[in-house]
Amino acid sequence: MIDTHAHLYDEHFTQQWDVQYNEMKMAGIEEVWLPNCDQDSWSALWSLYQANTSFCKPMIGLHPTYVKEDYVQQLAFFEQELQSKKVLAIGEIGLDYYWDVSFKSQQIAAFEMQCHWALEHHLWIDVHCRKAYADLLAILKKKEFKELTGIIHCFSGDAREANTLVDLGYTLGIGGVLTYKNANLHHDIQDVPLTQLVLETDAPYLSPVPHRGKPNSPAYLGLIAQKLADYREMPLAEVIQITTQNAQALKAYSNI
């Protein structure tokens, strides 16, 4: 299995890396893809990748909730890094209006700039979107971005938004929320073909049941796969095979 989105550079993992790594491998995890947050997280992410090049794959980008007064300087730093670093994707980038909209226009500007980087470097994008799907869709529908593709990480929109994103060529990242009793995610993605879904944990966040409320791990990815198999009334092995193939197809876009 491939965990397409987990923050393994978080201290929760790095303080006990050997133990955590063994648990992931025992759970059948072949690769974990690392989304970046900001300039401060980049060093830890890149160091972890260099120490585990076959298991960890790096993304680079400025997370929308880290878009603040210094976002232009942060983007300049990442743009320079892109000149010398090989990465899997541009991410985690996007829009987040859940906590604060005071930097809304800056989030949009940062997102569009990083989308252009993906086009320039022939990469896909890993997209964070929370309470901002109208603006996200308006941007992704622009003619200048029609060649973009990528993953909508931790998809949280409705059925119409899910189908629109799939029609635009995007894959939906499905994580622990799928296992939550009161979540509508299953209904919102029920018309999305399995060929347009990938699995993720967002570890150490959004732990699946029965680990909800505790730190998440890629070792729990099988719980998400099993829930998806149950909802789709498909064999678990088939769900794992198809979602892994979907991830591998996106990996083929990268230069790493």
From TrEMBL:
Pfam families: TatD_DNase (PF01026). It is an enzyme of class 3 (hydrolase). A divalent metal cation 2 binds at residues 128, 153. InterPro entries: Metal_Hydrolase, TatD-like, TatD/YcfH-like. Gene3D superfamilies: Metal-dependent hydrolases. GO terms for molecular function: DNA nuclease activity; exonuclease activity; metal ion binding. The keyword Nuclease applies. GO terms for cellular component: cytosol. CDD domains: TatD_DNAse. SUPFAM superfamilies: Metallo-dependent hydrolases (SSF51556). Its EC number is 3.1.21.-. It comes from the Bacteria. A divalent metal cation 1 binds at residues 5, 7, 92, 202. The keyword 4Fe-4S does not apply. Belongs to the metallo-dependent hydrolases superfamily. TatD-type hydrolase family. This is 3'-5' ssDNA/RNA exonuclease TatD.
